[in-house]
Amino acid sequence: MNGVLIIDKPSGLTSHDVVNRVRRILGQRSVGHLGTLDPSATGVLPIVVGSFTRLAQFYTHTDKKYEGVIRFGFATDTYDAEGEPTTPPAEVNFNFEDLRSLAAGFVGTRQQMPPPFSAKKIAGVPAYKLARKRKPVELKPVEVGILEFTILDLTGECASFRAHVASGTYVRSIAHELGQKLGCGAHLAELRRTAVADFKIEDAHSLEELAAATQQGSVGAMFVHPRKLLPHMPSVTVNEEALGHIRDGRAVNLPDMSRAPQVKVFCNQRELVAIATRIAGTLFHPSIVLSVNSVSLLNNHSNCD
């Protein structure tokens, strides 16, 4: 079983917890995810299954979209609602327009301090392990990209927002810094990821839906169509002879005129067999071979028509 699933991660589970549940539901050992989501957060968690785990390398630097709520009045050590307060309660005395104006100033490329409770490593040790032991956490600012940060509403101490950020950006840190600038402290109260790259919440499934579909034998319909993956890469369909070369890791001429540096190679409409890298002209080398059914496909003429 090879493919990509979009899971709507529930609150209270780590991304690794979700991976383990998918393994049990599908009875598949080779399962991974494309981008960690905090345990308290919900939303889009793309899951790669089988040989498609090898596609993870193409999703290491992907934009992400979120919706959430920031609570003003005090900061926490984790920068979210799971942590302990680090500042005394403060009065919230700004208005909606002031907050929207301040938030707009966060958009662009900027330096951001990661949360002390994060996976950033200090001398090889994850920061959160040091923070849990109350040891000093000396992190350095990193350059991040914020494509959108819009305040949607302000009700009392809480503001709802929408954000679109580049890979490596911590929304928790945005909330924390916003509270610092306002002088009242703030933390991330709720977070829901609505998109990772081209994977959207509208196409996500719950773990319960996945389990039910597996029992009913209809789980295949939940997988993202392979031709929708990595949309920046053109798709080419090969014949049996070319498929044999690809299976053996040999260079092959492919019918592609796009001049793209890489292409997705299909045997038919749904069978993604490889990612190939252009060498020169129409000559490509199979940099990643995905299909575990290459031998059987070669013996079945109808599959490659």
> Kindly, what is the distance between the CA atoms of the first and last residues, rounded to a whole number of angstroms?
22 Å
Low-confidence stretches: 294-305
The biggest beta sheet reads:
9 strands, mixed
Mean pLDDT: 90
Number of domains: 3
Tell me the CATH topology of the largest domain. Answer: Pseudouridine synthase
Order of helices and strands: EHEEEHEEEHEEHEEHEHEEEEH
Return Rg in Å. Answer: 23 Å
Keywords, separated by commas or semicolons:
alpha+beta, 5-stranded mixed β-sheet, Archaeosine Trna-guanine Transglycosylase, Chain: A, domain 4, about 300 residues, 3 domains, about 30% strand, elongated, Pseudouridine synthase, 9-stranded mixed β-sheet, single chain, 7 helices, disordered C terminus
Q: How would you explain this protein's 3D organization?
A:
This protein is an alpha+beta fold. The protein folds into three domains: 3-62 and 198-224, Pseudouridine synthase (2-Layer Sandwich); 64-196, 2-Layer Sandwich (Pseudouridine synthase); 227-304, Roll (Archaeosine Trna-guanine Transglycosylase, Chain: A, domain 4), CATH 2.30.130. It is 20% helix and 32% strand. It has helices at residues 15-26, 96-104, 127-132, 171-182, 207-216, 240-247, 294-298; strands at residues 3-9, 31-33, 42-49, 64-72, 108-112, 121-122, 125-126, 142-155, 158-165, 186-196, 199-200, 235-237, 252-253, 262-266, 272-280, 283-289. Strand 8 and strand 9 form a beta hairpin. Helix 1 runs parallel beside helix 5 (207-216). The chain is elongated.
